[in-house]
Amino acid sequence: MADLISPEGVEALFTRADGSYLFARWGRPIVPVVFGTDDKTLEIVKGAVEAVVMMAGHQMAETDPELGVNLMFFFFREWDELVEVPDMDRMIPDLAPLVARLKAADANQYRIFRFDEAGAIKASFVFLRMEAQLSRVPADTLALAQVAQTILLWSDTAFTDRSVLAQAGEGQVILRPDIGAVIRAGYDPVMPAVAQDASHALRLSARLGQM
User: Fold this and answer.
1) Does 2 score more than 70 pLDDT?
2) Ramachandran region, residue 86 (left: φ > 0; alpha: ψ -120 to 50; beta: rest)
3) By three-state DSSP, how is residue 166 classified?
4) Mean pLDDT over residues 63-87, rounded?
5) DSSP 189
6) Do 35 and 71 form a contact (C-beta atoms < 8 A)?
7) CA–CA dist 41, 38 (Å, integer)
8) Strand, coil or helix: what is 148?
9) Distance CA 167, CA 173 (A)
10) At a CB cut-off of 8 Å and minimum separation 6, what does 81 contact?
């Protein structure tokens, strides 16, 4: 496997299963909200958002002028619960077929992105089905992993064979330093918010060497 810091490694992070290259970052301040969990977990999730946003050099806000909130986390036990959420079918077109596919795949998580006219991220929905496996993951670990995978539009295959997190001794889990470096490079003001040409990965990789 190519070194993640190499141009080939960076390119792989944003090359989708169909072979297309697509990079996007948030084009507006992030306003998170959490549904379906207790106050303690809510604070953990919001703390993870704050930490990753600060590391990226991006911003948060109290409200989004267009959407109110734009990063929504949903915790639940069964996918069918999504169909019962008021107005969810208005926010997520074709909700029922999506739920059917996720049930058939026995998925425990799913992320949906919405984009502005320029192609930058303007909203994201994070769905977490807290089955046995996911319920065993500590809340801070789960929150950090989900936020890290939402701060950029990664490839749909970027983390299928590796984790976005790393062990740091004493049972502590942190964001992988190389992934953190890619996030910071992606939010460099001189870099575009959206890119569809793989040459963008060369520019990202060059900035990694400067960090």
Assistant:
1) no
2) beta
3) strand
4) 94
5) T
6) no
7) 6
8) helix
9) 5
10) none
